[in-house]
Amino acid sequence: MKYTASFMRRHGLVPLAEDALAVTVGCAAPPAAPIRRLLEAHHLRPVRFARLSPQDLLVRIQRAAAHGTEEEADAGIRRAGSSRAADADATDATDATDATDDAPAVNLVNSLLNDAVAQGASDIHVEAHRSAVPVRYRIDGRLVPAAGDGKRPLLAPGRLPAVSARLKVLAGLNAAERRRPQDGRFTARLTAGAIDVRFSSMPTVDGESLVLRLFPLGDDRLGLDELGMPQVVYGQVSARIERSAGLLLLCGPTGSGKTTTLHSALRRINRGDRKIITIEDPVEYRLDAEQIQTNEPAGLTFDSLLRRVLRQDPDVIMVGEIRDPETARLTARAALTGHLVLATVHSRRASDVRGRLIDLGVEPRLLDRLDPVLLSQRLVRLRCRSCKTARGCRECRFTGYRGRTGLFGMEGPGGERLTLADDGRAKCEAGLTTEEEVLWATT
Question: How many angstroms from the chain centroid is the CA of residue 273?
Answer without folding.
Answer: 30
